[in-house]
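FORM 12-B: Structure-to-Sequence Request
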């Protein structure tokens, strides 16, 4: 697939599908009889959100936000800024914030703060991947697909310099330095 980087499969699409189905069942049980707003963080969470949503047995609406990070070079240690806000009100709604990876936690702790200002009824976080070793902010997801060590991964929505989002598997970009962020947020 790539001449630029060597890719090693970490999770095959069938494994991802099975885990996302389990998450969907858990969420369906947790919110039985309620309606939900799923808020995806663009662009990385788009594929996870679309698969997860189809595994949730409840009335769901979607919204999307986008963030960018500023700070030292391209590291995600900088400040996070909202570059696309919500389209619909989430006041008094059950909200699940859907993210591809929980890494340093800067993005999700920023987004949690922003969303809480809109007074949702409940706010939970679903992250497909969690890299706890990288955490700078004390935040945990309520629903986690897989916990992984500090590898830079691509595929199933996740990119390196905007590439590889369309890979069906999640792969380790083995010649990228550990923890190297994508060129932009998302
Ligand atoms: P955080 O603010 O450091 O938690 O950043 C989370 C965001 O950084 C994710 O939503 C991704 O967009 C990006 N990111 C972090 N780790 C990776 C990775 O291994 N591959 C691709 N993107 C990543
Ligand atoms: Mg992202």
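FORM 12-B RESPONSE
SEQUENCE OUT:
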């Amino acid at each position: 697939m790539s001449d630029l980087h060597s890719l090693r499969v970490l999770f095959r699409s069938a494994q991802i599908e099975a885990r996302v189905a389990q998450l969907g069942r858990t969420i369906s049980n947790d919110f039985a009889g309620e309606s939900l707003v799923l808020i995806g963080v663009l662009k990385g969470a788009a594929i996870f959100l679309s698969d997860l949503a189809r595994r949730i047995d409840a009335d769901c609406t979607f919204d999307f936000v986008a963030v960018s990070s500023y700070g030292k070079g391209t590291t995600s240690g900088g400040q996070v800024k909202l570059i696309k806000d919500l389209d619909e009100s989430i006041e008094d709604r059950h909200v699940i914030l859907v993210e591809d990876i929980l890494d340093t936690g800067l993005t999700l702790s920023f987004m949690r703060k922003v969303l809480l200002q809109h007074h949702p009824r409940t706010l939970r976080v679903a992250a497909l991947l969690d890299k706890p070793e990288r955490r700078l902010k004390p935040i945990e997801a309520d629903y986690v697909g897989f916990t992984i060590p500090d590898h830079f991964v691509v595929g199933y929505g996740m990119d390196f310099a905007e590439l590889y989002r369309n890979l069906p598997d999640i792969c380790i970009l083995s010649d990228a330095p550990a923890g190297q962020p994508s060129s932009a947020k998302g």
